[in-house]
Amino acid sequence: MKNNSLNRKDIESLLPHRDPMLLIEKMTDIVPLKSARAIVNIRKTSFFVQGHYPGKPVVPGVIIVEAFGQAAAVLTAHSLDAEITKNKLVYLMSIEKARFRNPVIP
């Protein structure tokens, strides 16, 4: 059985993303090919909130979608046999009807 959680180093072994675009810090509660909880640390100093909006920072929706995509890619790569995912990338191909009901603030 695979680990039920992944740290940053584990995630880096599954994704090509690196700072500042690697958004996922940790994955927990992993149910292979089904679900997981992704931890993303949002800070006032994060590059994507410094100018969005000065004095009242909000995480842009595109960053939220990117974090979602990274979490899905990590879940997929972690769930499959390493030989299947070796030298392959997982892409988020579409988002339909995304709605942001509340702002995400640092």
List keywords for this structure.
single chain; 106 residues; alpha+beta; two-stranded antiparallel ribbon
Write the layout of secondary structure elements.
Blueprint: H1 8-14, E1 26-31, E2 35-39, H2 61-79, H3 82-85
Antiparallel strand pairs: 1-2
Provide a descriptive summary of the structure in words.
A two-stranded antiparallel ribbon has the order 1-2. The relative contact order is 0.20. The protein has helices at residues 8-14, 61-79, 82-85; strands at 26-31, 35-39. 28% of the residues lie in helices and 10% in strands. It has 106 residues and is α+β, with helices and mostly antiparallel strands.
Give a concise summary.
The chain is built from three helices and two strands; from the N terminus they run H-E-E-H-H. The model has no long low-confidence stretch (mean pLDDT about 90).
